[in-house]
Each structure stands twice: as structure tokens, then as C-alpha cells.
Amino acid sequence: MEFRSWATNQPNEYETFDCCVRTDASGKWHDYNCKMSFKVICSDVEGQNVTFVYININLNWTAAQDYCREHHTDLASVRNKIENDRIRELIPVGQFVWIGLSRSTWKWVDGRKPSLNYWSKNEPNGAAENCGVGNFGSGYSGRWEDWPCAWKTAFVCFSDSRHVVKLKLVRSSALNLNDTTVQEDILKQLMQKLVNQEGKENFKLSWKKQSDGNVFYTEKKKDEI
Predict the structure, then answer these.
(1) What is the domain range of residue 128?
(2) What is the rounded CA–CA span in Å between residue 80 and residue 166?
(3) How far apart are CA 193 and CA 190, in angstroms?
């Protein structure tokens, strides 16, 4: 999200469910309880052309998204000030409407959603407390709490498994495989193939360099050995 139009002191996450965004005739954004009902701004997208539609129905954020996806393209996404102004002009004075911005639920750094719920009582509870900590103090047994991310404390690292794969490339051109630009392009293509196969992106690819600094070397033919 490059463009932002938050109102003063927003987002403030005043309540636990303040994860969805509404806007008004001023064009300023507010985070708010996703379960509350407001009018809706949907979008119709055709290529690079976007049309915004004011929906005069009160819906919660999830229902608003379902409605927009059924009858239009989706809830309105705002890429720049021009689009924000176009949406603002559709909103009657004094009304709030849902747009397609929301804060995702708690998740691990690799993108997975927690399968284990080990929060302490009444946690998470903070307004700007967006990082998780395990409290191993007396009586807490490592239960989770949400803390401000700027606070300093001890931490635990995780070392994931690594796999080294030998790759053989057959080529007929004079392409220099040890050119860094070429290597980056190959990695991008391999990454896309893995994403398509696995359906997830929580892995990294990198080249292992030989002792001479090169990644690839020309394989000798049998009659050359």
C-alpha cells in the first residue's frame, strides 16, 4: 500500500476488531470494527480502468466484500489520490462507507496462520501492540501476549531446514550463466514454478558459489576426461 489517507491519529486499533477501514465524504480513512454495518463502495475493473460504485445498503465488512465480488469486481481499492477523490465524491455528507482495506489476522513471519492458540487471558488486547511475545515469567508458562514492537526483550531464533540441489542447465546459446543478471532471472523463473506447484511463497532460493566464485561451470565431455 503506497497511497495513504488516514485521518488524524488513525489507525488507532481502539478495539480488538478494529481491523477494517471505512471512509467518509472528507476522504479520510478510519479503522473500525469489521462487524459494524455501513454503506459500501464497490469497484468495477476492466484492465487499467476502474469505476467506483456507491452501494446504498448497510453491510458489515465481510458481507460488503461478498456483495461486491458477486455484483461487481471487489470492494474498492485505492491506489492514488485521484481514485480517493473519486470515491469521496460518491459519499453523502455525514455517512461512512467500507472500502477494501483491512488488517490481516495474527500470523507467523513465514505467512502461516497459528494452528495453536496460546494467548494469556484477555490477550491480545493492545491498541498499537502488534508483535507477539512468550511470557515465561512465574505463572505464565510461556503464554502469548501482544506488545509494542519497539519494546526490547530477549528473543528466540529459528533455523529452518535447507536443501542443496544440483542443477544442470542445457543450453545452445552463448549465454553467460555466471552473469549475475542471468542468474537472478533464472531464480525468478524457478521461484515462480515452485509457487505454482506448492501454492505458497514461504521459501527462498539462492545460488551456491564454487571456490572460484562462479556458480556454474562447463561440464566436460567423456572423451575430454
Answers:
(1) 123-156
(2) 45
(3) 5
The DSSP letter of residue 188 is: H
Q: Are 26 and 59 in contact (CB under 8 A)?
A: no
Q: Are residues 83 and 128 in the same domain?
A: no
- The per-residue pLDDT for range 166-224, each reduced to its tens digit, is 777 776 566 777 888 888 888 888 888 777 776 656 667 888 777 777 887 777 665 55
Looking at the fold, whether 152 and 164 belong to one and the same domain comes out as no
Tell me how many degrees the CA angle 199-203-204 measures, rounded to the nearest 5: 130
Q: Do residues 26 and 98 both lie within one domain?
A: yes
Distance in angstroms (rounded) separating the CA atoms of residues 215 and 179: 9
The alpha carbon of residue 54 and the mean position of all alpha carbons in its chain are separated, in whole angstroms, by 27
Q: How far apart are CA 25 and CA 191, in angstroms?
A: 43
Q: Which residue has the cell 460488503?
A: 64
Residue with cell 494452528: 115
The answer to whether the pTM exceeds 0.85 is no
- The CA-CA-CA angle for residues 6, 11, 12, to 5°, reads 145
